[in-house]
Write a structure and sequence with these properties.
It is a single chain. The chain has helices at residues 24-33, 43-50, 96-110, 125-133; strands at 3-9, 12-18, 56-63, 66-75, 80-87, 116-117. The chain is of the alpha+beta class. It has four helices and six strands; from the N terminus they run ββααβββαβα. The protein is globular and about 40 Å long. Helices cover 28% and strands 28% of the residues. A hairpin with a 2-residue loop joins β3 and β4 (66-75). It has one domain: Gcn5-related N-acetyltransferase (GNAT) (Aminopeptidase). Strands 1-2-3-4-5-6 form a six-stranded mixed beta sheet, sandwiched between helices.
Length: 149
């Protein structure tokens, strides 16, 4: 479990911890509010698949027990991945996203992952700039896919 204190946001500190089953509804609502869900991915299944596993977890930022941010983190033994990085739209620009990404990076370091990957839609320039400020660089790769369903 990850636990830590994040930035001072208003008058309270934001804590980061592993999501609990009871956080599911709030986390899914957050992902939807941040437009992170798509018709071909089931966010409930994603949440349940990732939570508390040896190779994955969902970390949440909480303020007075309210979920105000999340990141899904996992690794395949060679590289780490971040998904569903979300901050309540009313709480953005307060350092919460940075705190969540740093907590996920620490989670990966503790498990021996040497690097971290993430994907951002190329039209999402504000988020690309956020990750660039955190030291992330574009990768010269072609992502390919094949639907197995």
């Amino acid at each position: 479990m990850v636990a830590g204190e994040g930035p001072l946001c208003g008058r309270t500190r934001v804590a980061v911890r592993s999501a609990a089953e009871t956080d599911e509804e709030a986390v899914i609502a957050l992902w939807r509010a941040c437009n992170l869900t798509v018709s071909y991915n089931d966010p409930i299944a994603d949440f349940r698949f990732a939570c508390g596993k040896p190779a994955s977890d969902v970390l949440v930022a909480v303020d007075a027990e309210a979920v105000i941010g999340s990141v899904m983190v996992g690794h395949d033994g060679h590289r780490g991945w971040l998904w569903y990085v979300a901050v309540d739209p009313a709480r953005r620009k307060q350092g919460i996203g940075r705190t969540l990404v740093e907590a996920a990076e620490d989670w990966l370091r503790q498990r021996g992952a040497p690097k971290v990957h993430l994907m951002v839609r190329e039209t999402n320039t504000e988020v690309i700039e956020f990750y660039a400020r955190m030291g992330y660089d574009p990768m010269p790769r072609v992502n390919m896919q094949k639907w197995l369903k």
